[in-house]
Amino acid sequence: MSWIVALLILYIIWDVNYFIRCVFTVFCGRLLQKKRKITDTTTIYGLCTSQDVDIFFRHMNNARYLRELDFARFHFYGLTGLYEEVCKVKGGAVQGASSVRYRRTIPIFHPYKIQTRLVWWDDKAIYLEQQFVTLADGFVRAVALSKQCITNCNVYDIIKKFPEGKTRPDMPEELKLWLDAIEVSSQKLRKDK
């Protein structure tokens, strides 16, 4: 009986399902899928359930998109081995910024996939593009750009450890404009101090 109380307390204090899903996503990816190049697109699948919907119970809540993107990033890191290389030099990764463009909702009980790909990198961060695609119609429901700040190491040094990372692609135009907007915002905040 005491273990039930302890489990209940854990569920109240922490989002236990989040941590279970993180572990499940990474280990299933590593055990059941082949390793990918850092330039490959990785894919995870999901289903919009009653836990994901907004107050009208019709489609996925905006906050859930961001949560699902976490799992897709962890999956990407696990399949490519990128995070392992960062850890070898005692580095880390933290979300520096994200931008989501919602094109059409994901209705309740509809399956979808999230495709993640590395689009660019600089000395301090990697930049990922992630797409939500519903399986029934192949429609891209949302697109996210993510800046993953890599701490305590030089990203160029890490990326060069992968054969496909020897040549950096051109910066996509939408990424350049997004980074410019981030810089304008940062300058404004610095002036406010």
Number of domains: 1
Taking all Cα atoms into account, the compactness measure Rg is 18 Å
User: Helix amount, in percent?
Assistant: 40-55%
Strand content: 25-35%
The CATH architecture can be given as Roll
CATH H-level homologous superfamily name: Hotdog Thioesterase
User: What structural category do the secondary elements indicate?
Assistant: alpha+beta
Segments where pLDDT lies below 50 for 5+ residues? Answer: none
The counted number of beta strands is 5
With strands numbered from the N-terminus, the spatial order across the biggest sheet is 1-3-4-5-2
Shape: globular
Average predicted confidence as pLDDT: 93
Distance between the termini: 54 Å
Order of helices and strands: HHEHHEEEEHH
Report the sheet with the most strands, covering strand number, pairing sense and barrel closure: 5 strands, antiparallel
The CATH topology assignment is Thiol Ester Dehydrase, Chain A
What's the tally of helices? 6
Report the top-level CATH class. Answer: Alpha Beta
Notes on the structure:
Strands 1-3-4-5-2 form a 5-stranded antiparallel sheet, with helices on both faces. It is 41% helix and 26% strand. The model has no long low-confidence stretch (mean pLDDT 93). It has a single domain (33-192), classed as Hotdog Thioesterase (Thiol Ester Dehydrase, Chain A, Roll). The longest helix has 20 residues, at 173-192. By secondary structure, the protein is α+β, with helices and mostly antiparallel strands. 24% of the residues are buried. Strand 3 and strand 4 (125-134) form a beta hairpin. It has helices at 2-13, 16-32, 62-80, 82-88, 155-159, 173-192, and strands at 42-47, 92-102, 111-121, 125-134, 140-151. It contains 6 helices and 5 strands, in the order H-H-E-H-H-E-E-E-E-H-H. It is globular, with a radius of gyration of 18 Å. Belongs to the THEM6 family. The chain crosses the membrane at residues 6-28. Keywords: Membrane, Transmembrane, Transmembrane helix. It comes from Hermetia illucens. It holds the Pfam family 4HBT_2.
